[in-house]
């Protein structure tokens, strides 16, 4: 079971995804107000709905391998409708596998292992999976912004960077490159841009945050190995 975020206050709805359907429940409580039949289990959903109740989902529906998360769709949790569903297909006709999805600046952006695809909220394709110098491993967004997390290294030596991009064209507006070896980058906030990540020999418990173009440690007591502030020279100061 996967709970899709609700919206609209006490009068709003929340979506709950199961193996065969998505059900909409009033946030104030009570029985399901609607159900949408589902072809495959939901793998992930966008963290929060848009102001008008749209949630992006990644789900299973590959007939050759039902366990693969290849489908992307948008659900209107206020109206109880699956608005559209698509696959991210590369130039060779192969459907990409996705393990995360978000909505930012009116764009639905999905990413997986070495694959990324994007659509407008109405389902119009924006970009398809393709070979890129750096893998897009995740996204974050809000009503006006889209942020992409990319890795330009490999498993043994990750080289992550976080880019604020144009939601429609993916043109890079600003870049924050983290120190080599930083792993598990998570966007805590888009505005201001705040990141959490693991770095160094204490990576199992370490955490760092980026704010105002500075890399800040989270503190040495709770996060061993932390406790200092650095000014990375790799920050692109494009406004």
Structure notes:
This is PQQ-binding-like beta-propeller repeat protein. It comes from Streptomyces spectabilis. Residues 201-215 have a biased composition (Basic and acidic residues). This protein is an all-beta fold. The chain has a single domain (2-177), classed as 7 Propeller (Methylamine Dehydrogenase, Chain H). 0% of the residues lie in helices and 48% in strands. Strands 1-2-3-4 form a 4-stranded antiparallel sheet, with no helix packed on it. Strands 5-6-7-8 form a 4-stranded antiparallel sheet, with no helix packed on it. It has a 4-stranded antiparallel sheet with strand order 9-10-11-12, with no helix packed on it.
What is the element layout, followed by pairings?
Blueprint: E1 2-7, E2 13-17, E3 21-26, E4 34-37, E5 42-45, E6 54-60, E7 69-76, E8 81-87, E9 100-104, E10 107-112, E11 115-120, E12 125-127, E13 135-141, E14 146-151, E15 160-165, E16 172-177, E17 183-189, E18 194-198, E19 208-211, E20 214-217, E21 229-230
Antiparallel strand pairs: 1-2, 2-3, 3-4, 5-6, 6-7, 7-8, 9-10, 10-11, 11-12, 13-14, 14-15, 15-16, 17-18, 19-20, 20-21
Biased composition (Basic and acidic residues): 201-215
Protein name: PQQ-binding-like beta-propeller repeat protein
Region (Disordered): 201-239
